[in-house]
């Protein structure tokens, strides 16, 4: 007989594996819809050896339908607060860095990335710390309150735009959606051109 046969590839292509123990957990039931979508979207980036080196920037997620940085930030926050993902490297505006933050899924082992100073870590399943949906919701509310308190008094680091109405557009005050309410979006002022 010939040499050992290779296992056939799945004709449907790559897939993600998420155990029912995660999907049935109280913490999963406490997550908002955007956070659940983000979990699945980020999970598609796991190749088997890159857990811990997953980025979640708006640029990389735009092709999956993510268009609001505030909604993305809230979904990332919820996933971290309830223990589904953990940050392995801080980055971005919050750390005054040009490199992005990196994450790991807590239900999977994370591999070592010496060049990124990310150590190997066994799966921690942090989302299982919440015994009930009520407990998970309380933990999320407490984390949101702490986030809001921490954001107060921080100096803004992004642009604050002073929009002016053109002939074809009318300026109206934006209304916060339920998922974006309470999010502090730092802005930077720009000088306006004087019209002749």
Walkthrough of the structure:
The structure is a single chain. This protein has a three-stranded antiparallel β-sheet. The protein is built from six helices and three strands. Mean pLDDT is 81; it is low at 165-181. Helix 3 packs across helix 5. Helix content is 29%, strand content 6%. The chain has a domain at 20-151.
Task: From the structure above, extract its key features.
mainly alpha; three-stranded antiparallel β-sheet; 196 residues; 6 helices; 3 strands
Question: Can you describe this structure in just a few lines?
Answer:
The chain is mostly helical.
Number of DSSP strands? 3
Per DSSP, what share of the residues sits in E-state strands of 2 or more residues? 5-15%
What is the number of helices? 6
Mean pLDDT: 81
Task: Record the SSE blueprint.
Blueprint: H1 20-23, H2 26-30, H3 33-43, E1 54-55, H4 58-61, H5 69-81, E2 85-89, E3 102-105, H6 133-151
Antiparallel strand pairs: 1-3, 2-3
Helix pairs in contact: 3-5
């Amino acid at each position: 007989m010939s040499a050992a046969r290779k296992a056939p590839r799945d004709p449907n292509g790559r897939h993600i594996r998420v155990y029912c123990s995660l999907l049935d957990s109280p913490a999963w039931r406490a997550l908002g819809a955007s956070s659940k979508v983000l979990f699945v979207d980020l999970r598609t980036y796991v190749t088997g050896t890159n857990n811990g080196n997953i980025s979640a920037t708006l640029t990389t997620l735009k092709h999956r339908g993510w268009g609001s940085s505030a909604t993305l930030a809230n979904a990332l926050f919820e996933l971290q607060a309830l223990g589904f993902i953990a940050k392995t490297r801080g980055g971005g505006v919050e750390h005054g860095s040009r490199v992005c933050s990196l994450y790991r899924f807590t239900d999977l082992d994370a591999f070592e990335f010496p060049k990124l100073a990310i150590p190997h870590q066994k799966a921690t399943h942090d989302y299982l710390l919440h015994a009930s949906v009520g407990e998970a919701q309380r933990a999320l509310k407490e984390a949101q309150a702490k986030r809001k308190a921490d954001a107060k008094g921080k100096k803004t680091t992004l642009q604050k735009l002073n929009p002016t109405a053109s002939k074809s557009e009318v300026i109206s005050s934006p209304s916060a959606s339920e998922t974006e309410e309470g999010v502090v979006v730092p802005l930077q002022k720009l000088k306006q051109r004087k019209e002749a």
